[in-house]
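Researcher: Re-running this chain for the archive, since the previous output was lost when a drive failed. Same request as before.
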Amino acid sequence: MWNYSKLEVWQRSREFVRSVYEETGRWPSDERFGLVSQARRASVSIGANLAEGSGRGTYRAYAQFVGHAIGSLNELEHHLVIADDVGFIDPDVAHKLHGEAAEIGRMLHALRAAILRSGGSHPLGSE
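Model: Regenerated structure tokens:
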């Protein structure tokens, strides 16, 4: 329906995945199947939901999947808080990642609002 790869928020989410993978690679190896896996999965899910939703065919479904992306972002932020709580992540790095997450979150909320108010036209203009 829409080309998700042209969305700035999808592009930013790709960059964010790389940051999350880089940082979680420093976490304890015994967390590979625990918090590392969960944080990585949640980060990948943000862009994956944008991609899946863009092909669903309806504005309602698209907005729902953007909502799923927001949920994945929130889940990832929780994992980062836990990583900070248990000392896996440098507080400065955590602060940087939370800042990136906040910006992506603002973009996702704006996208969702644009989709919901689009009224049948492409929410971001022509392709």
